[in-house]
Amino acid sequence: DAKTTQPNSMESNEEEPVHLPCNHSTISGTDYIHWYRQLPSQGPEYVIHGLTSNVNNRMASLAIAEDRKSSTLILHRATLRDAAVYYCILRDTNDYKLSFGAGTTVTVRA
Amino acid sequence: EAGVVQSPRYKIIEKKQPVAFWCNPISGHNTLYWYLQNLGQGPELLIRYENEEAVDDSQLPKDRFSAERLKGVDSTLKIQPAELGDSAVYLCASSLAIFGELFFGEGSRLTVL
Q1: How many CB atoms lie within 10 A of CB A13?
Q2: From the list B35, B45, B102, which residue is nearest A46 (CB)?
Q3: The pLDDT value given to residue B71
């Protein structure tokens, strides 16, 4: 499985943007970049995904490097509800497996 | 629309006892997953179903774990006998299609004493 590397933790202030980096230097052409997050005592929830182009939805934006070896999840205005573990995952269209790493723990200060 | 429902939310048992977890996926979702999550780690896939067929069970410890998805709807994950190391959260997820977004339940937290 292609692997991703994320920082263990990040801190942010409320209402400020948060940029979560993810490195995936061994990404293959059939890998989509997915982000999920897990709030305390809950199951993970889908955030966003992309292949080559930048993506936006109501929750976040995903910026993908031109060589696809890294990506950044952007939370535009962090709220206390955004405190969670964020997982960057490569999902291969050949086997559809969604394999989670340790993720980045985001703390939001009021 | 109801989400993925799991029960029980919490279970405490003594080692060597059996335990079972139940999952009801979102209506119409053909793909169902069971994940295991140890404290401080990301979820790990145990088994994936397409309708009633287990299409990926390579990570399921078959000596003590078993799963079934009769009629392709709800599913049960069983551990017999439980060991101390099985203490974890067991997560169920479903998706509409094989490459679709996964929707997770709240999980079943198992403590083995």
Answers
A1: 11
A2: B102
A3: 86
Whether omega for the bond prior to residue B81 falls within 30 degrees of 0, making it cis, is: yes
> Among candidates A70, A66, A58, which has minimal Cα distance to A33?
A70
pLDDT at residue A60, rounded to an integer? 96
Unique residue bearing structure tokens 């977890």: B21
Distance from CA of B17 to the nearest CA of A (A): 25
Helix (H, G, I), strand (E, B) or coil at B80: coil
3-state SS assignment for residue B64: coil
pLDDT digits (tens, 9 = 90+) for B31-45: 999 999 999 999 999
Residue A9 in tokens: 């933790």
Question: Is there a contact between B99 and A96 if contact means CB atoms under 8 Å apart?
Answer: yes
Tell me which residue of B28, B104, B108, B107 sits closest to B73, measured CA to CA: B28
Beta strands in chain B (DSSP E): 5-7, 10-13, 19-24, 31-37, 44-50, 53-56, 65-68, 75-79, 88-95, 103-104, 108-112
pLDDT tens digits along B63-94:
999 999 988 899 999 999 999 999 999 999 99
CA distance B53 to B94: 14
The secondary structure element, H or E, covering residue A33 is: strand A31-38
